[in-house]
Amino acid sequence: MKDLLAWVRTNLIKERPEMFMKGDTVRPGVLVLVNDCDWELSGQLETTLQEKDVVVFISTLHGG
User: In which pathway does it act (predicted)?
Assistant: First the structure.
């Protein structure tokens, strides 16, 4: 998962990467699901991804 986050930051995030990541992990307020399961239950950054795993990032942050 750590490698995926680095790849996403480098290759997909075009502006304001600080809204997605803080340090080596996602910011508080970004929900990460791996195969519909909260990544906190599977080891967060240490989660090992397999070929057909589905990873979803959901922002719970919003403006007021």
Answer: tRNA modification; 5-methoxycarbonylmethyl-2-thiouridine-tRNA biosynthesis
